[in-house]
Amino acid sequence: MQGAAERPLLIRGGTTLTHENANYGADECCSGLASGRDRWVNTSPTGSFPPNAFGLYDMHGNVLQWVQDCFAESYSGLPTDGSAYEANVKLKTHGPFPSTDMTGTEACSYRMARGGDWGDPPSMIRSAFRNSGPGPGATLQNYRSGGVGFRVARTLD
Questions:
Q1: DSSP-based three-state secondary structure for 4
Q2: Per-residue pLDDT tens for 75-116?
Q3: Count of Cβ atoms closer than 10 Å to residue 30 Cβ
Q4: Per-residue pLDDT for 5 more than 50?
């Protein structure tokens, strides 16, 4: 079996994701892996890897990016113009993820996180990968995670 550094993941634009250009975990979920340029088993300092074609650093791996969107089980009915999904509907969840504990709660009690983090396998290191928080027993006000961060953004005129 090949190691994560030897089994690259092709990402949009034809770029190959390896431990030379992103901080992510082992092939099997969920543990950190230091390999090649990726010297960190946990989070890496910002700018440790080259930027993407837009000049943005750390878009793949390192930490999931917390976004404004309220929780949604699928992409069906979500905005396609880049605006946040903020429909505070009662949830009817199915399966282990999202948690069935979320059923009957309001969607905006949870927020989406995108991309993978330092402990995720290569298949989760992409912007379309979705996770949510907070987990069971936490609230948005007290939620903490070593695998979730955020990116400051602004609207350009």
A1: helix
A2: 888 999 989 999 999 988 876 666 667 888 899 998 998 888
A3: 14
A4: no
Distance (Å, rounded) from C-alpha 120 to C-alpha 132? 14
- pLDDT band at residue 24, thresholds of 50, 70 and 90? very high
58: left (phi over 0), alpha (psi -120 to 50) or beta: left
Q: Decide the pairing of beta strands 130-133 and 111-114.
A: antiparallel
Q: Which residue has the tokens 């199915």?
A: 94
DSSP assigned state of 35? B
In this predicted model, what pLDDT tens digit does every residue of 38-50 receive, in sequence order?
Answer: 999 999 998 898 8
The Cα-based distances of 13 to 9, 10, 53, 80, 121 in angstroms read: 12, 8, 9, 21, 20
Report the half-sphere exposure of 104 (CA within 13 A, side-chain side).
2
Residues 6+ apart with CB under 8 A from 29: 119, 120, 121, 124
* H/E run at residue 10: strand 9-11
Q: How far apart, in whole angstroms, are the C-alpha atoms of residue 132 and residue 98?
A: 8
